[in-house]
Amino acid sequence: MVYVVTGAMAVVPGPGGKLAHLYSGAVLPDQVPARIVDHLVECGLVSEADPIPTLVVGTVATEPVVVLEPEHDTGEGDRPPRVAAKALWIEYAVTQGVPEGEAVEMTKDALVERFATQG
User: Fold this and answer.
1) Terminal-residue alpha carbon distance, the chain
2) Are 87 and 45 contained in the same domain?
3) What is the pTM of this model?
4) For position 81, what pLDDT does the model report?
5) pLDDT digits (tens, 9 = 90+) for 78-116
6) pLDDT tens-digit map of 4-37
7) How far apart are CA 40 and CA 15, in angstroms?
8) Is 26 in contact with 5 (CB distance < 8 Å)?
């Protein structure tokens, strides 16, 4: 039986007697005692899930894999939020006319400062 965390987080016994914190979407390890799994199900923190398919080396996917790029909706036009990764700020700087080499050499703070006052 496979169980997945459906609540925000579930705490279960882990290796060596330490507690393991499993977040929403995580699969419960097989070693979690049944009484604890039952308790987590009763509390609505985990639920039974379909078994995870096992990948066998040498098998071929029967359907094409589609990778979708997430859209960056920052609420500030195309400008990334201040907490965005430096790579996004470099990308943004280049779209604003900064040579890529110059943008790469700048610190993230310098990029943020340069474009934070625009708009």
Assistant:
1) 54
2) no
3) 0.43
4) 83
5) 788 888 888 888 888 898 899 989 999 999 899 888 887
6) 889 889 999 887 778 888 898 888 888 889 999 9
7) 19
8) yes
Domain of 19 in residue numbering reads as: 2-49
Counted domains in the chain = 2
Hey, CA dihedral for 46, 20, 25, 64, is it positive or negative? negative
CA distances from 78 to 34, 63, 84, 94 (A): 50, 34, 12, 12
Give the Cβ contact number of residue 33 at 10 Å.
Answer: 10
Distance CA 75, CA 78 (A): 8
Task: State whether 45 and 78 are in the same domain.
Answer: no
Long-range own/partner contacts, residues 81-85 (CB < 8 A, 24 or more apart): 82/112, 82/116
> b/e string for 59-80 if b means 16 or more Cβ within 10 A?
eeeeeeeeeeeeeeeeeeeebb
55 in a domain, yes or no?
no
Alpha helices for 1-118 (secondary structure H): 34-42, 86-95, 100-105, 108-116
Are 76 and 118 in the same domain? Answer: yes
